[in-house]
Design brief:
It is a single chain. The chain is an alpha/beta fold. It has 2 domains: 85 residues, no CATH class; 195 residues. The strands form 2 sheets. Strands 3, 4, 5, 6, 7 and 8 form a 6-stranded mixed beta sheet that branches. Helix 6 packs parallel to helix 13 and helix 10 packs across helix 11.
Length: 306
Amino acid sequence: MANTKKVKWKRHKKVKVPWAEYDKSRRDDCKRVLDLRKKFKKLDKPVQRREFKLSCMVVLVLFKVLLNQSYRTIWSLSGTFQLWAVLGFKRNPCYKTIQNTMAYLDAEILELINRSLIPRHARLCGVDSSGIRTTRKGAWVIVTFKRRMRKKDFKKVHIFVDLEKKKILACIITGGTIYDGRQLRRMLRMCMWIRIEIVLGDGGYDSRNCFNDIAGINARPGIKVRKNSTTKSKHCPSRKWAVIAQKENYDKWKEDLEYTMRCVVEAIFSAMKRRYGEIVHSIKRKYRKVEIWIRTIIWNVCIYPR
């Protein structure tokens, strides 16, 4: 017979949330998002109607990603808190106007804006990827897009991070089955204007191409190799010395390259999924890239401001 007595659950650790500090930090985030209008001034042009400027409309899109809400909710908040008056509009733009602002943005434009938010020298960098789900599920996908419903529709987000300053230097969104090592060269090319000393990565980047790409930018590769790796060069001397160093004294190799700092990338992925959610809301491929870059800009400005 089951025990019918109710057992009172006791908390082993007292948790007290400083709500005043939390509210103040969120207000500061909103102020920094409003300041981003200056970054989009060079791209200013009318959106939908002449009364709406691109630099101000992008702010509403940033709030949509920052608060992880729908376009209709942002339209309602803009009217409730008179945000449209702060941005200099004569009236509150409708939710469809805010949504159509995504068509005026491009991943290359957002990449250039992100460059002005990060330093030009990074001593210790890390690279990693994480899966993210999409919203293309349900029977409405078959009716609207005339496509077969998929059981699993997910993507991969690859980021290149300054581990000391917690800034995201580059980001790429790919298919869920793409090999991680092939995206390292793309991210290194996106960061050619930054001077990098050490690049850390997990075993997924253990390949001669990855080692040669890191050595090509005059940086030290900090990638964990397989246990049965050969010490022969095979046209990749940087990997040869990494194999020798890890086989002789693995703990010393980790200490010299500060390999334990690679956990910062995992922490950033965890924090971004808690704040923005584990779903990419955009349906089109172009808008998904824009959404990922918007998340990156908000992270560099609000989470770890310079």
